[in-house]
Specification:
Blueprint (H helix, E strand, L loop, with lengths): L1 H24 L4 H24 L15 H20 L8 H24 L29 H16 L3 H30 L1 H9 L23
Bound molecules: S-adenosylmethionine.
The site of S-adenosylmethionine has 18 residues, from helix 4, helix 5 and helix 6.
Membrane topology: Multi-pass membrane protein
Subcellular location: Endoplasmic reticulum membrane; Membrane
Protein name: Protein-S-isoprenylcysteine O-methyltransferase
Length: about 230
């Protein structure tokens, strides 16, 4: 495991370094260079923060490089869109306020995600836990006192930010919709298990912190059984 994580880290370092080079040398596509750097920092950071604050579960998957086929396809489609539009309609890729908004979302989004991972510590796991481990405690402080799913919120902002940075209109809409759908379903199943693990304590937490952090996503809310109205 150690040598393979070293290889992945080296590869991510190369991607980040190449990104810096592209940014400095190829001014016409500097946003692509910043994108490469952002992706390498994001994936390296996933492994690093897990290794630092939840070392018992760290493994090669912690880089999230092989998150899912859908993730890889979405990345490849965004690369294709960027280079196709850069070639066919370079005017679309003109640097504007959108690019800078994308940069802000990338930095803020990744910062929120990594801070959430640090805050949750050993309770954070890249895989949703269907059984409760002894050291899994309910986290309600820090960012978790503001929204219930700060790491998903951060990743959502980061992902949308990458498409703004690349000025990819098609993927911007696609990412905003499909990633939203992914997190809305994920949050419901995650909260189903959290309710099983922590029961009333999680129910109270949902009341104290009503926002999930992902827009228009409510999470796993209890089904309210109506008492018939007294006539
Ligand atoms: C990938 S982490 C995501 C955590 C959270 N959804 C977020 O966005 O910050 C998934 C794991 O975190 C755990 N988890 C989520 N919210 C938690 C909380 N408030 N306290 C403790 N564990 C939590 C879940 O049980 C799951 O195993």
């Amino acid at each position: 495991m150690l040598h393979e994580s070293a290889i992945r880290s080296y590869f991510l370092g190369l991607v980040g370094g190449a990104g810096i080079l592209v940014t400095l040398v190829h001014c016409e596509v500097w946003t692509w260079g910043v994108y490469m750097l952002a992706m390498s920092v994001f994936h390296f950071g996933e492994f690093y923060v897990t290794a630092r604050f939840n070392s018992k579960v760290v493994n090669l998957d912690s880089f999230l490089l092989n998150h899912s086929n859908e993730y890889l396809i979405a990345a490849a489609v965004s690369w294709a869109e960027f280079w196709l539009e850069q070639w066919l309609f370079p005017s679309v890729k003109q640097v504007s306020g959108l690019v800078y908004l994308g940069l802000v979302l990338i930095v803020v989004g990744d910062g929120i995600r990594k801070y959430a991972m640090y805050t949750a510590g050993v309770s954070f796991n890249h895989l949703v836990q269907d059984t409760k481990k002894d050291d899994h405690t309910l986290i309600k402080h820090g960012l978790y006192g503001i929204v219930r799913h700060p790491s998903y919120m951060g990743w959502y902002l980061f992902s949308v930010g990458t498409q703004l940075l690349l000025v990819n209109p098609v993927c911007l809409v696609g990412y905003a919709v499909f990633i939203w759908k992914f997190f809305s379903e994920r949050i419901v199943s995650e909260e189903y298990y959290l309710l099983r693990h922590f029961g009333e304590a999680y129910r109270d937490y949902q009341k104290q912190v009503p926002l999930t952090g992902v827009p228009f996503v409510q999470g796993c809310v209890p089904v309210v059984t109506r008492t018939p109205k007294q006539e």
